[in-house]
């Protein structure tokens, strides 16, 4: 427990950063295998991937990992051919899973801390879409105390309570010019929080074959104490008073169905199907506490659709010490074609991944994985009329340490 | 230890390598198509010159649409584009010797004010820059289609209307040269012609009191059509390709649409007393003469402006006689007869020029403007120069004359472009679109004065943003006619009006 407390202290002053909108970066082992895990994982990360499977793990463990996400992108304006660059700050989603309880008993418990959602983006100064966004950073962290119960020798269920905390900053230009010709600027900064749950059921047909089903509830992030600050010409300052804002960010619920097949004790093959209901993410309203004639509620029309992910991955043990992992996931974007926007230029993605695990001792192991994501999307937003090609490369190396006890 | 360093070095190299891995983008190289942009000359008026905020000044010239076009032409073999630039830090000069307008705060409200109250930079007119020419940008503020062909348009001896100091400064032969001659002498391979607005606008700007609309017929220098033919034939004589723009309807520009015809509020007591003592009786008399629709009783809000319509039958005598008959003393009756003889309330067909807003409600300098008839546009009619008269009854209106002339000019411009196979820019349609509102890269652009983003503080000329949007219309027209693939300008970083 003492070790855990120290890690907590290190984590607590900083927020967890992330890139992308919904992250599946909660275990380096699973990341190497395409992000699968609903039909069981190999350590305490089961608390996140399927709480129902955690009670089947033969040892307790603490596992922590970090993902330095490197991303660079471009937006090419269709009409002018101007190439805009997005140089995004290095961000590092983190996780920590700890599983406790007597492995010989039916009841286990634990805690997961992870980064469920996130996004950062910083566009160059004369960005074509600067009235939509110049900089965005959405950071979140979830705390999930969890219990897992082995109902029968083949069937387990589990449930976790999720406390989600997020922090959003959003910068954009306002189409008004200062006397020196520079553009006015608006910045919105808010924290948001929400409660939810993560439940899972797990069935082990045999030591070779198992399946799992999980449901993660929606997180209706409430931002009740945000700030909007405006840098506008002084003659218009009265129209743009700095003020409190409120907003709701409904993050989606999702279902995951997973299968695991282990034909030999050297090989594990897993596949997951995930679907996230982004439909509540339709229009995000930023409500100003002190509206003026020129400053009314900002409505961000998103109208996201249901998203799907298909994931498959395998792990092969080369010997007692070293395992290799490989996987791939295909993710269908929730963003409609006519609503692609430079704040979250998401696209359908095919993400290959590889990983390696090294067992330092019976109790201690190290893992590393690497995911490559390429985002390519073209379209005209029917509201902002920003029209062009988005391309992003994301390189996500990761490293984790796991201690079993 | 050594091994560890190697590992660290490799990690650092890999890390840096990844960090620089931006996705590759391939933007097709633009091509010139069947046009040759190596020598581009622009013919036009103030809009072409980069005039904005009621003056010709450096920052405006830098974003003139021909200068913006030339930057895009340069990507497909276009040559240098020389403009008759004014000094960089000058307040500029406008048609009345004024300085450029800036947005200032007057009595606590934002209002356009001269950058220099002492006036504009007259050295711009007197210091010739002809030696740094010839100029690719031959846009001359105030030029009409008919004056573009005038020889000696830079000669002060020719007198008002046939002489233009903005041309004097840029020609090597003010006494004899014409704009067209100086443009053609450069032997352009490509030209643009956006001329003709002033052939109607100059009339409109004076409220229809001077600067008669150029007739369509008549020889070059007198008639619009022949002048346009002269320009286009001369410019294409050596096989040059080009682009022709038509002219906007005046109802697209904020100068004529910002001030409503009915802006007058009154308190209840004033409205009641004016109705009882003045408007009620006068309306009765007018009704008896079959002209009751000229005036209406006053309310507390949105009263129309009181204007003098010179096309109306003068009913002074009838009014005076009727009032005397009703027992009003002769002096009072005579005064009302003079004031209301040709007065009527404005209707939505009338256009109120922007500068009129500053005199509404002020005291006229007329000896007849005694209380309560000392409020311009409320109890004392605005003279013809403050109003562009719309249709009222069966009279031909100033607005109608302008609309008719504009349509005729635009028919001619379109026909010339078609017959010569030149690209055609429908500026009229573009500005109508701006009036409706354009959504462009996350920004709303409209013709709303000051805040719309497209029009500068004079309400006629464009902002940098407006010029960039206009240049894109030229680019689109050129591409579709000459199979070129010029890229548009990313106008989203161009600015509108600057606020203090």
Detailed description of the structure:
The complex is a heterodimer of chains A (405) and B (500). Chain A has a 14-stranded antiparallel beta barrel. Chain A has a single domain (2-404), classed as Porin (Beta Barrel), CATH 2.40.160.60. Chain A has helices at residues 2-11, 28-32, 46-49; strands at residues 61-66, 70-77, 83-87, 94-100, 107-114, 119-122, 135-150, 155-177, 183-204, 209-216, 219-231, 243-251, 253-264, 267-277, 283-288, 298-301, 307-317, 322-332, 349-359, 364-380, 387-404. Chain A is elongated. With 405 residues, chain A is mostly beta strands. Chain A contains 3 helices and 21 strands. The model of chain A is unreliable at 1-21 (pLDDT under 50). With 500 residues, chain B is α/β, with parallel strands linked by helices. Chain B folds into 2 domains: 40-258 and 398-493, 3-Layer(aba) Sandwich (Rossmann fold), CATH 3.40.50.1110; 268-303 and 306-345 and 354-386, no CATH class. Helices cover 35% and strands 9% of the residues of chain B. Chain B contains 17 helices and 11 strands. In chain B, the strands form 4 sheets. A 5-stranded parallel β-sheet of chain B has the order 4-1-5-6-9, with helices on both faces. Chain B is elongated, with a radius of gyration of 28 Å. The termini of chain B are far apart. The model of chain B has no long low-confidence stretch (mean pLDDT 93). Classes of the chains: A mainly beta (405), B alpha/beta (500).
Main CATH class of the largest domain in chain B: Alpha Beta
Q: By CATH's scheme, which homologous superfamily of the largest domain in chain B applies?
A: SGNH hydrolase
Beta-strand level of the residues of chain A, as a percent range?
A: over 45%
- The CATH architecture of the largest domain in chain B would be 3-Layer(aba) Sandwich
Order of helices and strands of chain A: HHHEEEEEEEEEEEEEEEEEEEEE
CATH class of chain A: Mainly Beta
Q: What order do the SSEs of chain B take from the amino end to the carboxyl end, as H and E?
A: HEHHHEEHEHHHEHHEHHEHHEHEHEEH
Strand order of the largest sheet of chain B: 4-1-5-6-9
**N- to C-terminal distance of chain A:** 12 Å
Overall geometry of chain B comes to elongated
Strand order of the largest sheet of chain A: 1-4-5-7-8-9-10-13-14-17-18-19-20-21
CATH architecture of chain A: Beta Barrel
What would the CATH topology of the largest domain in chain B be?
A: Rossmann fold
Counting DSSP E segments of at least 2 residues, the number of strands of chain A comes to: 21
Could you say how many structural domains of chain A there are in total? 1
Give the helix proportion of chain B (percent range): 25-40%
């Amino acid at each position: 427990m003492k070790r855990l407390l120290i890690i907590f202290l290190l984590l607590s002053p900083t927020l967890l950063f992330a890139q992308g909108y919904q992250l599946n970066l909660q275990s380096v082992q699973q990341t190497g295998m395409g992000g699968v895990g609903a039909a069981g994982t190999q350590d305490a990360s089961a608390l996140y991937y399927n709480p129902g499977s955690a009670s089947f793990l033969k040892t307790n463990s603490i596992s922590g990992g970090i993902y330095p996400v490197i991303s660079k992108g471009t937006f090419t304006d269709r009409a002018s051919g101007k190439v805009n660059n997005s140089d995004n700050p290095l961000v590092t989603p983190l996780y920590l899973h700890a599983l406790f309880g007597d492995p010989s008993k039916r009841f286990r418990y634990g805690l997961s801390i992870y980064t469920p959602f996130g996004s950062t983006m910083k566009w160059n100064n004369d960005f074509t879409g600067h009235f939509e966004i110049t900089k965005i950073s959405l950071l979140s962290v979830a705390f999930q105390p969890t219990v897992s119960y082995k109902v029968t020798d083949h069937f387990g269920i589990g449930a976790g309570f999720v406390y989600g905390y997020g922090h959003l900053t959003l910068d954009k230009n306002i189409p008004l010019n200062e006397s020196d010709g520079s553009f006015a600027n608006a910045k919105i900064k808010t924290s948001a929080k929400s409660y939810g749950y993560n439940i899972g059921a797990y069935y082990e047909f045999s030591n070779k074959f198992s399946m799992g089903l999980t449901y993660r509830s929606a997180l209706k992030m409430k931002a009740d104490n945000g700030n909007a600050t405006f840098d506008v010409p002084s003659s218009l300052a009265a129209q743009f008073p700095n003020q409190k804002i409120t907003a709701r960010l409904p993050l989606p619920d999702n279902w995951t169905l997973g299968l695991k097949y282990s034909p030999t004790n050297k090989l594990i093959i897993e596949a997951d199907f995930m679907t996230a209901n982004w439909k509540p993410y339709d229009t995000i309203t930023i409500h100003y506490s002190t509206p003026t004639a020129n400053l009314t509620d900002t409505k961000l029309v998103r109208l996201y659709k249901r998203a799907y992910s298909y994931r498959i991955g395998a792990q092969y043990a080369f010997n007692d010490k070293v395992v290799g992992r490989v996987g791939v996931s295909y993710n269908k974007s929730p963003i409609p074609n006519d609503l692609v926007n430079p704040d979250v230029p998401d696209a359908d993605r095919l993400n290959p991944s590889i990983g390696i695990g090294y067992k330092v001792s019976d109790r201690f192991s190290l893992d590393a994985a690497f995911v490559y994501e390429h985002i390519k999307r073209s379209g005209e937003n029917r509201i902002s009329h920003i029209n062009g090609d988005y391309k992003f490369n994301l390189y996500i190396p990761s490293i984790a340490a796991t201690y079993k006890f | 230890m050594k091994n560890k360093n190697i590992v660290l070095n490799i990690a650092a190299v890999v890390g840096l390598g990844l960090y620089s891995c931006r996705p590759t983008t391939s933007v097709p190289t633009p091509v010139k198509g069947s046009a040759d942009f190596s020598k581009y000359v622009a013919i036009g008026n103030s809009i072409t010159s980069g005039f904005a905020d009621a003056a010709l000044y450096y920052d405006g010239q830098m974003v003139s649409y021909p200068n913006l076009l030339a930057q895009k032409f340069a990507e497909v073999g276009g040559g240098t584009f020389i403009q008759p630039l004014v000094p960089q830090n000058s307040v500029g000069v406008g048609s009345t010797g004024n300085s450029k307008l800036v947005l200032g705060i007057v009595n606590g409200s934002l209002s356009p004010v001269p950058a220099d109250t002492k006036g504009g930079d007259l050295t711009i007119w007197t210091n010739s820059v002809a030696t740094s020419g010839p100029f690719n940008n031959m846009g001359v503020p105030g030029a009409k289609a008919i004056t573009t062909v005038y020889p000696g348009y830079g000669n002060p001896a020719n007198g008002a209307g046939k002489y233009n100091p903005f041309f004097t400064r840029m020609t090597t032969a003010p006494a004899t040269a014409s704009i067209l001659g100086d443009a053609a002498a450069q032997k352009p391979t490509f030209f643009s012609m956006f001329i003709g607005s002033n052939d109607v606008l100059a009339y409109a700007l004076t409220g229809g009191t001077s600067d008669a609309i150029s007739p369509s017929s008549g020889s070059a220098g007198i008639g619009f059509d022949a002048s346009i033919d002269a320009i286009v034939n001369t410019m294409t004589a050596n096989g040059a390709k080009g682009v022709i723009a038509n002219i906007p309807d005046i109802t697209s520009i904020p100068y004529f649409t910002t001030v409503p015809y009915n802006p007058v509020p009154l308190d209840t007591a004033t409205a009641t007393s004016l109705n009882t003592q003045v408007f009620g009786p006068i309306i009765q008399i007018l009704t008896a003469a079959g002209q009751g629709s000229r005036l209406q009783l006053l309310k507390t809000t949105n009263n129309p402006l009181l204007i003098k319509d010179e096309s109306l039958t003068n009913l002074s005598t009838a009014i005076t006689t009727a009032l005397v008959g009703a027992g009003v003393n002769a002096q009072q009756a005579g005064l009302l007869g003079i004031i209301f003889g040709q007065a009527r309330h404005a209707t939505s067909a009338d256009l109120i020029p922007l500068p009129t807003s500053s005199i509404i409600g002020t005291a006229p300098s007329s000896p007849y403007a005694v209380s309560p008839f000392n409020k311009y546009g409320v109890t004392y009619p605005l003279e013809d120069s403050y109003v562009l008269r719309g249709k009222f009854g069966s009279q031909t209106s100033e607005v109608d004359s302008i609309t008719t002339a504009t349509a005729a000019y635009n028919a001619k411009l379109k026909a010339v472009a078609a017959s010569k196979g030149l690209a055609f820019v429908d500026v009229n349609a573009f500005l109508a679109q701006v009036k409706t509102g354009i959504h462009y890269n996350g920004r709303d652009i409209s013709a709303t004065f000051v805040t719309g983003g497209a029009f500068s503080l004079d309400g006629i000329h464009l902002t940098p943003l407006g010029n960039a949007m206009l240049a894109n219309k030229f680019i689109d027209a050129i591409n579709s006619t000459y199979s070129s693939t010029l890229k548009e300008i990313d106008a989203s970083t161009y600015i509108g009006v600057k606020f203090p």
